[in-house]
Amino acid sequence: MLESTPHRRNSFMPYVPIGGTPYVDVEGQRLLMMSGYSYLGLAGDPRLAAAVNAAVDVYGTGAHGVRALAGTTPLHQDLESEIARFTEREAALAFSSGYAANVGTIGALCGAGDHVFVDKLDHASIVDGCQLSGATVTRFRHNDPAHLDARLRAAGTDGVRLVIVDSVYSMDGDVAPLPALREVCDAHGALLMVDEAHALGVIGKTGRGIEEHYDRTVRVDIKLGTLSKGIPSMGGWVSGTPDLIYHLRYGARPFLFSAALAPAQTAAAAEAIRILDAEPQRVSHIQAESGRFRTAMADAGFNIGQSTTAIVPLIIGTDAQAYDYATTCREHGVVGLPVVTPAVPNGMARLRIAITAAHSAEHIDTAIEAFVAAAEQRVPAGE
Ligand SMILES: Cc1ncc(COP(=O)(O)O)c(C=O)c1O
Fold first, then answer.
1. Dist CA 54 CA 264 (whole Å)
2. What percent of the chain has pLDDT over 70?
3. What whole-number distance in Å separates Cα of residue 106 and Cα of residue 115?
4. Per-residue confidence band for 383, with pLDDT thresholds at 50, 70 and 90
5. Where does the Aminotransferase class I/classII large domain start and stop, copy by copy (predicted)?
6. With a 6 A CB cut-off, is 197 part of the ligand 1 pocket?
7. Separation of 228 CA from ligand 1 center, angstroms?
8. Which CATH number fits domain 6-33+280-378: 3.40.50.150, 3.90.1150.10, 3.30.300.30, 3.90.76.10?
């Protein structure tokens, strides 16, 4: 059993958004939220609320079944065609979460006798999907194509070989070295799958993710993501060839045996993708302001690791130190949520900051001042 500790007080903190702003109300205190995942700043957008209301008026609140039986509506078909179009693929499939998308896709593609290769920092839903699939799981060093090459060589040539990486790593904000990974995969006849959870709407000039980030010089075989971060709804997605999507429809167990996405969430997600497509300035704002934030924090002496994206870790030290720093930040008016072991290695606990399109330049300046002031309070000058 996990030991109860007062340091965990920053976890499970209930908060209420303050309409149309990046501020939240936490137990009566107005705080600037700097750890939210709603990258595109669309969570309170009235256009999404209108899409939700229209969907509920027609379809009610539930999908009433799995997609293969009574669960498919025109809303699901619309969402899947929007995902396919935006991610530049012929076909797509919507799952009930990003977690289910990873578990379902990996399990449908690999089984006993096959090999999956995962980056050491891949998301837990990838790791769980690999373990449940029954395939042999091999980890390679983070963002190290040469180590992947050695691992693939050692594994031999039997069965499916599937390499899975995050496009943007959720705890560190660094990007996968896609061109080198593609080269290694091609040399070994391996498939390459990316999880775009923190990339869709965030990297690439128009937010199309890792292929656009590398100027479309490389192509992945399977793209996957969530509808719960930049796209502020619920659900997960996979896009690829029509053959792949057909295979997943009947072979991905969390898709086949679990209820369809609710109509409200489906409609909100489709509308958010259309807005993302029409308003690429949201993406350029995230990229410009996160660059400014990273530079300011590094200049102020923070360890921000290898971040080059909207996710900026402020690496603090022990779990207790990160919890304490988060509490001090709240006293200075900002929310930076701590990420501790086992999500990150011992001694590398951090506040995981995410810059969004809802943060104006003034909000970012306020946050920089607060994080610096809180750090100075924690370690007084001269000590
Ligand atoms: C990289 C990555 N993949 C998948 C998921 C799971 O997505 P969802 O929350 O939609 O289940 C997450 C969520 O934290 C994530 O960060």
1. 8
2. 96
3. 11
4. very low
5. 37-371
6. yes
7. 8
8. 3.90.1150.10
